[in-house]
Structure formats: C-alpha cells, structure tokens
Amino acid sequence: MNDFWDFVKTRREATKDNPDQFAERLIDELVSLGLQQVLDFFQWFESLLDRANTYELWDAVDIIECGASESTFLDFREWLILQSQEVYEKALADPEWLADYVQLDTIFTDQGLGGVAYYAYERIMGHYMHPTLQGINTGVKGVKMPYTDETRDAVLKARHPKLYAKFGNCERWGLDQEEVQE
C-alpha cells in the first residue's frame, strides 16, 4: 500500500453520493490488487486505530458523545481515519482541536472501514483471516484521568475545556446527567 491515505480518500470521494457503497468499493478494489495489498491495508489501518487509542482522545469523545463506550470510541477512531491524514494528525496532537472541527450533529456510527481488509482477505483466500494475522491492540495509551460519576464533569472539563464548552451539555441529547452516568 503505497499511500494508504490517498487510497482511502479517492475511494471516499468516488462514493460521496452513495456512502453505503464505500466499504464495498474498497473491498472490491483491494481484492483486485491482491493479497499483499490487502495485508498492507490491514496493517496500516490497524496501526492507525492503535495509535489513536489514547485516554486523552477517548475523554474527548466522551465529552462529544456525552459518554463513550469501547465500541463508540472504535467508531470514532474509524471516522477519524476517514476524515483525512491532516484531521487525524491534528486530533491526535491536540484533541481540543476537535471542538473546531466536529459539529454538534456529527455521528460517529460504524463507518464500514473496520471489516474491509477481513472481507477482502476472505474473498481472495476463501476463508477467514487467521488470528495470527489479525491486528495486535496494544491497549489504551496515555494517562487515564481517574474520576467517579460525581467528579466526571469537573475532570473532563479541566482536561478539555474547549470541547466541554461546546459539547458538555448532555441536554442536547435529551439526557440529564444522571442518565449519562448510568
């Protein structure tokens, strides 16, 4: 995979009128490029997911989404990769920057990118990707800010004041703080 970012960008732009076709198009094109390109794509994607797996970024998503489970955070990291290399790098360097980029109505649902390499591999090889080839998650990196349900808002507001000012009010979701903490 000579340029992962360019490969994803051009396929995303080609399907902008029909985003549901994005993942399928990526799979088809990876299959046509062969097994080595599928494995290269997989390695790039997994390394980018892993690099964005930080507590600081997870706390930012927790503020934006008014709570963020592991699957929500994974969806966010896939969404972040789909934006562009520039957006990805800026968010990793300074999660507060997301306050200027993310809109109140942005949704980080499953972007369809996570399974692309698996499906392409299966089409080429005729079987599922063996677990020894699958990505190695090194775990969440950075400093976890300890907080309880009672101190959550204060800790997150101190860590990401700009994000908290824009997204910290969970009422926009029709939730009160007690519902968020459950």
Descriptors for this entry?
182 residues, 59% helix
Q: What is the strand tally?
A: 0
The helix count comes to 11
* Overall form: elongated
Question: What is the string of helix and strand elements?
Answer: HHHHHHHHHHH
Average pLDDT metric:
86
Give the biggest sheet. Answer: none
Explain this structure.
The radius of gyration is 18 Å and the shape is elongated. The chain has eleven helices and no strands. By secondary structure, it is an all-alpha fold.
Please sum up the structure shown.
By secondary structure, this protein is mainly α. The chain is built from eleven helices and no strands.
How are the elements arranged and paired?
Elements: H1 4-14, H2 22-33, H3 35-51, H4 55-65, H5 70-83, H6 85-93, H7 98-101, H8 116-125, H9 152-159, H10 161-167, H11 177-181
Helix pairs in contact: 2-8, 3-8, 4-10, 5-6, 9-10
